[in-house]
What we know:
The protein has a 7-stranded parallel beta sheet, with helices on both faces. It has helices at 3-7, 22-33, 45-57, 72-85, 108-135, 169-188, 210-217, 232-239; strands at residues 13-17, 37-42, 62-66, 91-94, 139-144, 194-201, 250-253. It has one domain (3-251): Rossmann fold. Helix 4 (72-85) packs parallel to helix 5 (108-135). It is of the alpha/beta class.
Amino acid sequence: MNVKELLSLKGKVILVTGGSGQYGQCIVEGLAEADATVITSSRDFASATQTATLMKEAGLDVHPAVVDQGDPESVKEIVHFIKERFGRLDGFINNAVSRPMKGYNAPIEQFAESMDVNATGMMNLLREMTKLIVESGGGSVVNIASMMGMFGPDLSNYEGTTNMGDLPPDYFFHNAGLINLTRFMAQMNAGKNIRFNCISPGGLFNHQPEAFLANYCKKVPLKRMANKDDIKGLVVLLCSEAGAYINGENILMDGGLNA
């Protein structure tokens, strides 16, 4: 098969949760540019609609949906919506995250709230989307974690900054768990024509303070943070036939920071 055909997502229906976030919009755009029909979801339907409208104006096949992964009824509703509207699901980009915990000394109740959404709720949604993909004949799941799920924090990145460096422990906890959950799901769904992989990105440039950018980028062999295009090709690869033999992997996408 020609490599362009291998990388094509034409005819595929793919759900992206958290599609209005920084990495989420990049992912939605990349999948749609590869000719997928993309469902971009958010807890806020207005936000999902805004993202879908921007993509449609660029000629891309993107549709809004609402789902709150912390609410089991909302998860049931999006399963029904996908079946009724599209009739199938070929891919799921597990990207949504809630960040109620703002720092190390935040109230412990915020840790419990984070786990309810980012662990229990996420697992419920992941299991339901897996079932739907299998029922549709198979496909691909891509979990979006973080390099923070693989390494402890480098606090020297925050030297010379203000209001940075008080890092929330739940973020490290649930990203580490998601990486190994990817391997678990790959093994538990063996023989069902479905693949599970994880991407652990490094920092995405978002006009951070100059001191942080200088501290961070000097440690990266490529001398920069990730830009909005860097994740596109990797997500398309993992969802396409070009990635058909990649399964159970966690891919560190950090420009060589942790090489």
